[in-house]
Amino acid sequence: MKRPEAPQEEFWAWHSSWTNSFAGIRIWRAAPATCGATFDAAHPADELKTIEERVGSPDFWKDQAAAQKLLQRRRRLEEDRDLSESLRKRLEDLTVLVEWGEAGEPVADDLGRALDDLSAQVDAGETKKMLGGEHDRKNAIITIHPGAGGTESQDWAEMLLRMYIRWTERKGFKREVMDFQPGDEAGIKSATLTITGDYAYGMLLAEAGVHRLVRISPYDQASRRHTSFASLYVWPELPDDVDVEVDEKDLRVDTYRSSGAGGQHVNVTDSAIRLTHIPTGIVVSCQNERSQHKNRAQAMKVLKARLYDLKMKEQAARLEQLGGEKKDIAFGSQIRSYVLHPYQMAKDHRTKEEVGNVDRVLDGDIDIFIKTYLMKKASGTLGQPSAPEDE
Q1: Separation between Cα atoms, residue 373 and residue 135, nearest integer Å
Q2: What does pTM read for this prediction?
Q3: Which among 177, 122, 168, 163 is positioned nearest to 358, based on CA atoms?
């Protein structure tokens, strides 16, 4: 919601707009006891009390798996409670500001900032409430690969990498580059990162798929329009206690010298590791550490995450076959297009969400796409990835 240029003169029109936009939230002012129900089941306080009693019992840790699940449930309920309390406090503050504004005080700027903060917190709360999957809360491992097209696609893959790095900065997440393969002339051949932050996997899973760029190529002397593709793959970073067995005889281990621009910090030893899982053909590389042992441990972590993900997908496929459901899943079906010419538009083909400011999207402002995807998925109205018509 755009704040008015002339605060006091526009106050009443803005106040009306705020009332309409947040009518649902303002219900809490009349019935604050219902605030918690917006973000969780009824009577969360009673459930928290019951959980605390269970945690305090002498036999709580006899079943480790059940204990961990109960603790996770407690943490989620506590977060819901804290969010509800925070929202209630913000609404009380807004109410005071509105009353001051109605009395003629110049509070429009303060009201605008408070309203923006409330809107951001509500959006974040809504997004988290839709992330209830088994691994949604975990850190994420992402890999970006360019499609066919040489330098064009490799440059697009690097643009996509920058977009997700900027997104992590916006979210306050940490990141670690585990593998980076530069392109021959520009861009990248591949990059693998670990993204550390609450719900990193659940949010980035909404971004997994093929991304399409349409632009006037900076590498074409004739300034022709080019279409490029790059893919994002996402896996949850698994905790150490998840048992994924990898037989050493199924691995081919190659060592090589880490790539880089040179200089005093260049890695001059063959410490980079490439693991090939022979039964599945999965290949994982890691070169960010100077120690070959550490690189191998990091690569094994990624390999186990990919093998676990593959196992889960195979189980899901078997369930679909039992249910008689058939899906045409084709690699190359774009989940999103970023058009820079002949017009400016970023469009998600699964949700139909569109944003005209492509530069802002490429600068990491992708939360609107993630939230819309999660909402559509939760409501069962999510469309399939599609190949758009040529512009």
Answers
A1: 17
A2: 0.69
A3: 163
